[in-house]
Amino acid sequence: MNTELIHVGFGNVLAVNRVIAIVAPNSAPTKRLIQEGKQKGLTVDMTSGRRTKAVLIMDSGHIVLAAITPETITGRVAANRGPSGPARLIQQDNDGE
Question: Which among 63, 47, 57, 50 has a CA at the least distance from the CA of 19?
């Protein structure tokens, strides 16, 4: 299996094929998930001190904080995979097209 890497800002890259979900950080359950991850040492902060705009949940149980929006991450995945890849279909569904 090939590892697909995506740039998530400030020189940080992430293995996209290990991501289970990308969520916004503003809901209470997501905030609890981040706190629990910090307590267990499973949180990886890739924001470089900026505001967290996306929370990525990895298949290893790690929680990754990113300073770019979930839509931007989805767009970068779609650009890497081409217009017919699964990420492009997800992005179109979210836009209502």
Answer: 57
Pairwise CA distance, residues 50 & 37, whole Å = 19
Q: What is the pLDDT of residues 28-69, one digit of tens each?
A: 999 999 999 999 999 999 999 999 999 999 999 999 999 999
Tokens 């949940």 appear where?
57
Task: Look at phi and psi of residue 48 and say left if phi exceeds 0, alpha if psi is from -120 to 50, else beta.
Answer: left
Q: Long-range CB contacts (< 8 A, 24+ apart) of 76-85?
A: 76/6, 76/7, 77/4, 77/6, 77/16, 80/4, 80/6
DSSP state of 50: S
Whether residue 9 contacts residue 66, with contact meaning beta carbons closer than 8 Å, is answered with yes
In this prediction the pTM is: 0.82
